[in-house]
Specification:
InterPro entries: 6-hairpin_glycosidase_sf (IPR008928), 6hp_glycosidase-like_sf (IPR012341), Glyco_hydro_9 (IPR001701), Glyco_hydro_9_His_AS (IPR018221). By secondary structure, the chain is mostly helical. It has 18 helices and seven strands. Helix 3 (96-113) packs parallel to helix 6 and helix 4 (121-140) packs across helix 6 (182-198). The longest helix has 20 residues, at 121-140. The two termini are 44 Å apart.
């Protein structure tokens, strides 16, 4: 019997009660005394974070006032315009691979939970568009090329400069037929296709541009297969190498184009891939779990039996991330305080992405006849159990943890003060108009003992270690750096819980 075998009705109810009781016991003592966190406030802040990550010319309605225009000549090294987009974290480089994943997850968050965002859906669409306007330039500017990054990553990491001051080389990197990158191309296609669904009603002309570009980039990804990190220099491929290969991005891109276009050729392509690796993580690098949950939607809600294998694989992934008290096949460690702990480097990205998949698969289960599944014949896993676990993770991020600390900057009474972020840690151009040089930044600001002068509201840091300890040390990038691909899936979770538990 498979990990995700359906349970017989006679055993389901008794076992479901047992599992629900087990999960309640597992996170009892972690419920906030004042009730649920203010999810709507956290949602608003999580979206504001993206404004602090903007590159290029800032718009008149920019709310994060300590940022100014930056990288206004990006692309000039190749005689093209590549201004705009996002810096991925606390540095000043534009890495398209994680940026495209950020855009895809923001779009999926809106598609699933935009109806629960109330007045924040406009902000969410604006966050998507800041990325996709740039990705359209990357995909459309030069025929036969997909631009995949701007900035010498090694040189950038040797400096501590505000983005408004940066003078490190702004080299331009691209993939092509002779230097393929199916991974970054597949993710770019996914981002453009997912965004086309977001803007289908809000801006039809823009939606059509997005899906047309997505088709072309996906075709390029299939025709010229290879890993971009094997061909792109300048440190770009070293900071974000595709450890998982590129089949996962081909699957992911096809899954999103199938949704965006309803063209069955993408269904045939993704079935032909044979991307059957067992996974227990979902991230900017490995998209298999996300693609499987996305395809499960069509299997569960539309009854498409051709996609049932993806449903089983999605449930096997979930069995791997449940606590071992609930799943014999769990491969995920939890801290004593109840947080998933995958890796020491920016662990919150894995918490946020896994929580999004738990919340979203629970939504699909609840809307279909699939009331429960089991992990190696253990007790049944219901959609309520998945939502409870996702809520536990989100609540931990927002302060329900042994330190009583919110890991979202600006949310709650206690949050990180010294995040690893150049622009946040240095005075704004308005406060300090004179240029601050590369090494002066290290001497005067990276190693300063005080809190960051600019509160980067909504930034979710890397988080605590496996024992729930957090040093709040600016130099500790693994725990103190925020990244866009943590916030993007968290937006969806926060929107769901904001609608579920209205304050």
């Amino acid at each position: 019997m498979s990990n995700s075998a359906a349970l017989a009705p006679s055993s389901r109810s008794r076992a479901a009660v047992f599992l629900a009781f087990s999960l309640v016991v597992w996170f009892s003592g972690h419920v906030l005394a004042s009730g649920h966190p203010h999810y709507a406030d956290a949602l608003a802040k999580s979206l504001l974070f993206f404004q602090g990550q903007r590159s290029g010319r800032l718009p008149p309605d920019q709310a994060v006032k300590w940022r100014s225009n930056s990288a206004m000549s990006d692309g000039s090294a190749a005689n093209v315009d590549l201004t705009g987009g996002y810096y991925d974290g606390g540095n000043n480089v534009k890495f398209n691979f994680p940026m495209a994943f950020t855009a895809t997850m923001l779009s999926w968050s809106i598609i699933e939970y935009g109806g629960r965002m109330d007045g924040r859906v406009h902000d969410a669409r604006a966050a998507v568009r800041w990325a996709t306007d740039y990705l359209l330039k990357a995909a459309r500017t030069t025929p036969g090329k997909l631009y995949v990054g701007v900035g010498d990553a090694d040189a950038d990491h040797r400096c501590w400069e505000r983005p408004e001051d940066m003078d490190t080389p702004r080299d331009v990197y691209a993939v092509s037929a002779s230097a393929p990158g199916s991974d970054v191309a597949g993710e770019t296609a996914a981002a453009l296709a997912a965004a086309s669904v977001v803007f289908r009603a809000a801006d039809r002309a823009y939606s059509r541009r997005l899906v047309a570009a997505a088709r072309d980039v996906m075709a390029f990804s299939w025709q010229h297969q290879g890993k971009y990190s094997d061909h792109v220099g300048g440190g770009v491929g070293n900071y974000y190498p595709s450890h998982s290969g590129y089949k996962d991005e081909l699957l992911w891109g096809c899954a999103w184009l199938l949704w965006a276009t309803k063209n069955s050729s993408y269904l045939n392509d993704l079935i032909s891939l044979g991307a059957n690796d067992d996974v227990d993580v979902f991230s900017w690098d490995n998209k298999l779990a996300g693609a499987r949950v996305l395809l499960s939607r069509r299997a569960l809600l539309d009854g498409d039996k051709r996609l049932e294998p993806f449903t089983r694989q999605a449930e096997e992934f979930i069995c791997h991330i449940l606590p071992n008290s609930s799943s014999p096949s769990s491969t995920t460690a939890y801290t004593p305080g109840g947080l998933m702990h995958r890796r020491g480097n920016v662990n919150m990205q894995y918490v946020a992405s896994a929580s999004f998949l738990l919340t979203t698969y629970a939504k699909y289960m609840a809307a279909s006849r699939r009331r429960a599944f089991s992990c190696q014949n253990s007790h049944p896993v219901t959609h309520r159990a998945l939502r409870a676990l996702a809520k536990r993770q989100v609540d931990y991020v927002l302060g329900d943890n042994p330190l009583g600390m919110s890991y979202m900057v600006g949310y709650g009474a206690r949050y990180p003060q010294r995040i690893h972020h150049r622009a946040s840690s240095m005075p704004s151009v308005a406060a300090h108009p004179a240029r601050i040089g590369c090494q002066e930044g290290y001497r005067s600001y990276l190693n300063a003992a005080g809190p960051n002068p600019n509160v980067h509201t909504g930034a979710v840091v890397g988080g605590p270690d496996e024992n729930d300890a957090f040093p709040d040390d600016r130099a500790d990038y693994a725990r103190s750096e925020p990244v866009t691909y943590t916030n993007a899936p968290l937006v969806g979770c926060l929107a769901y819980f904001a609608g579920r538990y209205k304050n």
